[in-house]
Design a protein that fits this description.
This protein has about 350 residues and is of the alpha+beta class. Among the domains are: about 40-50 and about 195-270, Elongation Factor Tu (Ef-tu), domain 3, CATH 2.40.30; about 55-80 and about 165-195, OB fold (Dihydrolipoamide Acetyltransferase, E2P); about 85-160. The protein contains 5 helices and 21 strands. The chain is elongated.
Length: about 350
């Protein structure tokens, strides 16, 4: 009796062992080309002003006129502040009088040289005396040049008594008032042109790949959409983020995001990608579970990133296991139930 029981038990175990070793578990598997989508990518972006200036005094003087207040729109060249220029005006008048005197002496010396030259040619004066007159003319000429240089310096200083707008914009800050004394380098106002901006975004390696053949970019700020176009991809990595900076600019002249705004840069790539939901992680790497000769096979994707669609360089008819694949191991037998995606 015990002999029959042992034999029956052996017959039950052996078939089950053989069956478990060769049994296929049912899963869905789809062609790669049926799963690919045109994925949209996005990255954080910031609007930077292209024209923003902290205006400062270039000379020491008292402010005698303030022509602006915060919020005023100004044109290029508009006078924003006037500084007391009386001291330099007096210096200029004094120098003009000096120049007139020197010019008169110079004119006389030139006339005398012309007369001395005629006398020398007729042998009525010595060569030494003629040279003395030439030296006198040359000295007065150099003196005149020096005085004109001094005049230019005073005129340059006088131009600095008018603090003007270097470009069209809006006064966003005023630091001084009427009667204040300012020194060189002291800030007096801040000017911003809100219509001149560029957008800065930082992209990782996977996002850089998705930029290929992209023609349309947009920035979303508080549900408002601003169309953009790329300007330059800087050949450097940001030291803090280890990402590459991309610079863009608005394409619509009448729709410019405000400087300092932050939002999401979004673009659609012409390259089709596989949604992240079909990826699984094994060890430190993401990949796909393929169906090859009725067996599961893990295919590693070195460039794949968490939560991102992935670019796949496999034949379009490659079968991708789409259900229960996270529980499979390479070499497991799989029964393909078809694709119902």
């Amino acid at each position: 009796m015990k002999h029959y029981q042992s034999l029956a038990l052996l017959l039950l175990i052996v078939p089950n062992f053989s069956y478990a070793k060769n049994t296929s578990s049912p899963h869905q598997a789809c062609r790669l080309d049926s799963l690919l989508t045109v994925a949209s990518s996005q990255a954080h972006a910031t609007v930077k002003p292209l024209q923003q200036a902290q205006l400062a005094a270039e000379i020491s003087a008292k402010i005698v006129k303030v022509a602006i207040k915060v919020g005023d729109k100004v044109a290029k060249g508009d006078i924003l502040f006037r500084l007391d220029d009386r001291e330099w005006q007096l210096q200029l008048k004094q120098l003009d009088a000096t120049i007139q005197g020197t010019q008169a002496r110079h004119n006389l010396a030139v006339y005398q040289l012309q007369q001395r030259t005629k006398l020398y040619q007729s042998a009525n004066i010595s060569e030494e005396l003629l040279r003395q007159h030439k030296t006198e003319v040359a000295t007065l000429n150099a003196e005149l040049k020096s005085q004109h240089f001094q005049k230019q310096q005073i005129q340059l200083t006088l131009s600095k008594t008018k603090i003007t707008a270097p470009f069209e914009g809006v006064i966003v800050e005023r630091n001084v008032s009427l009667g204040d004394w300012v020194n060189p380098g002291q800030p007096v106002a801040s000017l911003l042109n809100p219509d001149k901006v560029e957008i800065h975004a930082f992209l990782d390696a996977q996002q850089l790949i998705s930029l290929e053949q992209v023609t349309e970019f947009e920035m979303i700020i508080n549900k408002e959409i601003f169309p953009l176009k790329p300007q330059s991809l800087l050949p450097m990595l940001d030291p803090d983020k280890n990402l590459r900076p991309l610079i863009l600019k608005p394409t619509a002249k009448t729709k410019i995001p405000l400087p300092g705004s932050q939002g999401q840069l979004r673009w659609r790539s012409a390259t089709q990608k596989l949604p992240f939901r079909y990826l699984l992680k094994r060890g430190d790497h993401y990949g796909l579970m393929l169906l090859v000769d009725k067996q599961a096979q893990f295919h590693q994707l070195p460039q794949a990133l968490p939560g991102r669609s992935a670019t796949i360089n496999l034949p379009p008819d490659t079968l991708i296991i789409t259900t229960g694949f996270r529980a499979l191991q390479s070499g497991d037998w799989v029964e393909n139930r078809g694709c119902f995606e």
